[in-house]
């Protein structure tokens, strides 16, 4: 399953790669293809519409992070929207209720309901060390009751003994009673299935629901049935109010639309995936993993995420750009000094900055410790705003005032001004190359 959708979307989005800027027309064309792919994958029309609109809205005019192509950016947006449509967070079965916790299993006959009941019981018993009781409520099909008994022996989980002639509600009540007396944590109630949704079935299951007040009502649906599974989910949710979905036969090669649609149509989480006939073929549902599988482009998503993390560096590069243009004033220097003290003092900092080794040599002998940093900051703090922005204003009398105000000497003020000039020059010089020397520092 999912292969078809993955291939289709993959092919479409590949076309977008390598383009310069992404126009509205580009996005629209891509979205037409995405729409077609989703419809072919049997995603419900209403879900496709909402999905495509959302992606389009997000993609047009999006700020494309440097170092990725616009196409890669769109892949990421499609991916994130897929994850969102699928439910964002993994949503495991909840047992947060007073024991014994009733879990009602519902679904059509042949969907894999009984098998899934045993799979979940096994998982709760082994992984979560819960004492589990299973009961079959399928009064019309003795074979179904036998099947659960067999599975119970296989997964080593207790199954409520069969009593002939009882109704589904009576069996459910008996199961709850037995669980209370026996100190069970969980009761799994496997309801009867029909080949199609019918009123008698819904009424019976609704009765059981009322009698047992289940903590989870899990719909088991066959992924291979595509759009039918979506309609089934809608019908069961309307009639009973389900709390989650288990999608079975995800191991088959059906179309991937069911998962997307079911979540979107019912608003209920897909909790687990059935991936085979064996009792351990049960997987946690992860929206991220499924979206990645649908797109088959996890690497691109990771790439865009990494690139986005570099945006901070871009801010720093902007600061460096300012310096290159000779707009590096004493206020900027004050900011840099602050950063330096935060990042382990000037000496340590300078060794990290390309091009700063020379500066360091020039300043050899100077006291490159934190007390120097503090004094330099005090000097700048003693200046007026216009002095900080225009160091040329600083003639002798002003320097004297600043030295007195900061508890330093005029020579020190001069040394700071000289350092500022030199830094500004070095910036300008380096600026002719690539990124500014402070680009790696992270902007304040
Ligand atoms: P029920 O009528 O809904 O209770 O369905 P069953 O539990 O009897 O399952 C019907 C058939 O589907 C059985 O042969 C199961 O082994 C098979 N089945 C159930 N779940 C899966 C699954 O996730 N993958 C595959 N391949 N087969 C499954």
From TrEMBL:
SMART domains: AAA, SRP54, SRP54_N
Keywords: Cytoplasm, GTP-binding, Hydrolase, Nucleotide-binding, Ribonucleoprotein, RNA-binding, Signal recognition particle
Catalytic activity: GTP + H2O = GDP + phosphate + H(+)
EC numbers, comma separated: 3.6.5.4
InterPro entries membership: AAA+_ATPase, P-loop_NTPase, Signal_recog_part_SRP54_M_sf, Signal_recog_particl_SRP54_hlx, Signal_recog_particle_SRP54_M, SRP, SRP54, SRP54_GTPase_dom
Membrane topology category: Peripheral membrane protein
GO biological processes: SRP-dependent cotranslational protein targeting to membrane
Signal peptide: none
Domain of life of the organism encoding this protein: Bacteria
A GO CC term attached to the entry: plasma membrane
Residues the entry annotates as binding GTP: 107-114, 190-194, 248-251
Class of the enzyme per the UniProt entry, highest EC level: hydrolase
One matching Pfam family: SRP54_N
Residues of the SRP54-type proteins GTP-binding domain: 269-282
Function recorded in the entry: Involved in targeting and insertion of nascent membrane proteins into the cytoplasmic membrane. Binds to the hydrophobic signal sequence of the ribosome-nascent chain (RNC) as it emerges from the ribosomes. The SRP-RNC complex is then targeted to the cytoplasmic membrane where it interacts with the SRP receptor FtsY. Interaction with FtsY leads to the transfer of the RNC complex to the Sec translocase for insertion into the membrane, the hydrolysis of GTP by both Ffh and FtsY, and the dissociation of the SRP-FtsY complex into the individual components.
HAMAP family found in the cross-reference section: SRP54
Domain notes: Composed of three domains: the N-terminal N domain, which is responsible for interactions with the ribosome, the central G domain, which binds GTP, and the C-terminal M domain, which binds the RNA and the signal sequence of the RNC.
Family of the protein in this entry: Belongs to the GTP-binding SRP family. SRP54 subfamily.
Protein name: Signal recognition particle protein
Species this protein is from: Agaricicola taiwanensis
Lineage, uppermost ranks: Bacteria, Pseudomonadati, Pseudomonadota, Alphaproteobacteria, Rhodobacterales
């Amino acid at each position: 399953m999912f292969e078809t959708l993955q291939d289709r979307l993959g092919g479409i989005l590949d076309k977008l790669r390598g383009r310069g800027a992404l126009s509205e027309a580009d996005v629209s064309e891509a979205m037409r293809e995405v729409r077609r792919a989703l419809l072919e994958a049997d995603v419900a029309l209403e879900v496709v519409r909402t999905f495509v609109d959302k992606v389009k809205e997000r993609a047009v005019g999006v700020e494309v992070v440097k170092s990725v192509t616009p196409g890669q950016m769109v892949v990421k947006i499609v991916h994130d929207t897929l994850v969102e449509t699928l439910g964002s967070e993994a949503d495991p079965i909840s047992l947060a209720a007073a024991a014994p916790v009733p879990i009602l299993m519902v679904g059509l006959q042949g969907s894999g309901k009984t098998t899934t009941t045993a799979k979940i019981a096994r998982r709760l018993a082994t992984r979560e060390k819960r004492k589990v009781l299973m009961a079959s409520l399928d009064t019309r099909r003795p074979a179904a009751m036998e099947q659960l008994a067999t599975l119970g022996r296989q997964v080593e989980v207790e199954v409520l003994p069969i009593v002939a002639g009882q109704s589904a509600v009576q069996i459910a009540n008996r199961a709850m009673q037995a669980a209370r007396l026996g100190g069970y944590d969980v009761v799994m109630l496997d309801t009867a299935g029909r080949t199609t949704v019918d009123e008698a079935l819904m009424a019976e299951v609704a009765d059981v629901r009322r009698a047992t007040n289940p903590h989870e009502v899990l719909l088991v649906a066959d992924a291979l049935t595509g759009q039918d599974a979506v309609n089934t989910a809608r019908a069961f949710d309307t009639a009973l109010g389900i709390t989650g979905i288990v999608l079975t036969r995800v191991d088959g090669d059906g179309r991937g639309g069911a998962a997307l649609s079911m979540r979107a149509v019912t608003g209920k989480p897909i909790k687990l995936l059935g991936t085979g006939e064996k009792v351990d073929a049960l997987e946690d549902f992860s929206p991220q993993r499924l979206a990645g599988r649908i797109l088959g482009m996890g690497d691109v998503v990771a790439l865009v995420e990494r690139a986005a993390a570099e945006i901070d560096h871009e801010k720093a590069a902007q600061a460096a750009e300012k310096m290159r243009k000779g707009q590096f004033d004493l206020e900027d220097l004050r900011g840099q000094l602050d950063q330096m003290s935060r990042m382990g003092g000037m000496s340590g900092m300078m060794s990290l900055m390309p091009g700063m080794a020379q500066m360091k040599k020039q300043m050899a002998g100077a006291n490159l410790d934190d007390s120097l940093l503090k004094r330099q900051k005090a000097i700048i703090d003693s200046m007026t705003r216009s002095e900080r922005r225009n160091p040329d204003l600083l003639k002798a009398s002003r320097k004297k005032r600043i030295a007195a105000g900061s508890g330093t000497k005029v020579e020190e003020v001069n040394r700071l001004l000289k350092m500022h000039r030199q830094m500004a020059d070095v910036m300008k010089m380096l600026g002719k190359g690539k990124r500014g020397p402070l680009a790696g520092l992270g902007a304040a």
